[in-house]
TrEMBL record:
Spans traversing the lipid bilayer: 48-71, 155-176
InterPro entries listed in its UniProt record: Cobalamin_biosynth_CobD/CbiB
Function: Converts cobyric acid to cobinamide by the addition of aminopropanol on the F carboxylic group.
Origin superkingdom: Archaea
Pathways involved: Cofactor biosynthesis; adenosylcobalamin biosynthesis
Keywords: Cell membrane, Cobalamin biosynthesis, Membrane, Transmembrane, Transmembrane helix
Taxonomic source organism: Haloplanus ruber
Protein name, per record: Probable cobalamin biosynthesis protein CobD
Length: 324
């Protein structure tokens, strides 16, 4: 089971590298997004409705994912492993976001209006008045933040429960992805029912955001960046998003900023300088490396956890003393 779980993570990484994302018409996360549309309406008690949605929708997504993997597993362990890999692949996102970030950075120097337009796919901010440096900053920030919620968080859920069973691992990844999707859809201060989805996402993302900061520091060859990033991480209003963004700012030695909201000065050498195209390209490379580290760590956790469970089960077997 442990090797099959690790193989599922490896296959998910391979699918991400080869395909980036499933076609929109076949993407379960896109289906979820369309399914949430009828819930975006006026409620008599919006906060209570938000609580109900936050509790129910992720559980439904988890049940569907677990059921699919359980059915496939009846055909054999290999079929179950492939099904789990497909769930893991659809619940994570790495290459597509990195490709978009690279495209924004490339356009920022040649066609700033096009770069501002492409930024809409990455960052939820008004880009009409952003300078080229601010556009690159937004692209780098989004790449760092999406490492946490688009990859590390669902991967962590999958890896931690994979030693118990592949259906549970798939359920955990789908649950985390649904929580994040709810936050992206409703988790705004201006949205009447957004309080519960936003608070649940804050809770779920607490560890993955900080784990992503560690991965970025290691991938950037600067483990000490975490100490310098700690005070900067508190500047964004989000309790979690600041960690990967601030760490990457320190690793790159640049200033990452959202005008009117926060400035993350990555060390004295940054001196308020926004990322150049070379800086931003390096930032995307660091995030890409951190993503591969996340896949490798998830596979390792699945194997080590499964081995530990197997060892515990073996040690609990009764000792049979032969008769004299």
């Amino acid at each position: 089971m442990t090797l099959i779980a690790a193989g599922s993570v490896a296959l998910a990484a391979g699918l991400d590298r080869l395909l980036a994302e499933p076609p929109a018409a076949l993407h379960p996360v896109a289906w979820l997004g369309r399914g949430l549309a009828p819930l975006d309406r006026t409620w008599t008690t919006p906060r209570l409705a938000g609580v109900g949605v936050a509790l129910t929708v992720p559980l439904v997504a988890a049940a569907v994912a677990a059921g699919g993997v359980a059915i496939a597993s009846r055909l054999g362990p290999l079929a179950g492993g492939v099904a789990a890999a497909v769930v893991c692949f659809t619940c994570t996102s790495r290459r597509m976001l990195l490709d978009e970030a690279r495209a924004v950075v490339a356009a920022s120097g040649a066609d700033l209006p096009a770069a501002r337009e492409r930024l809409r796919a990455l960052a939820g901010r008004d880009a009409t008045a952003l300078s080229a440096g601010e556009v690159r900053s937004a692209a780098v920030e989004s790449a760092a933040e999406n490492l946490a919620d688009g990859l590390v968080a669902p991967l962590a859920g999958f890896a931690l429960l994979a030693p118990l069973s592949l259906p549970l691992a798939a359920a955990a990844a789908a649950w985390v992805k649904a929580v994040n999707t709810l936050d992206s859809t409703f988790g705004y201060r201006s949205h009447p029912m957004g309080w519960a989805p936003a608070r649940l996402d804050d809770l779920v993302m607490w560890v993955p955001a900080r784990a992503s900061a560690v991965l970025l520091a290691v991938a950037g060859g600067n483990p000490g960046a975490l100490r310098a990033a700690r005070p900067l991480a508190r500047r964004p209003t989000s309790p979690n998003a600041g960690w990967p963004m601030a760490t990457l700012a320190v690793v790159l030695g640049v200033c990452l900023t959202k005008p009117g909201a926060y400035r993350l000065d990555g060390g004295a050498e940054a001196d308020g300088a926004l990322p150049t195209p070379a800086d931003a390209d390096r930032g995307v490379v660091v995030v890409a490396r951190a993503g591969w580290l996340a896949f490798g760590l998830a596979a390792t956790v699945a194997v080590v956890g499964g081995s530990a469970l197997a060892g515990t089960a073996g040690s609990s077997l009764p000792v049979v003393i032969p008769p004299c």
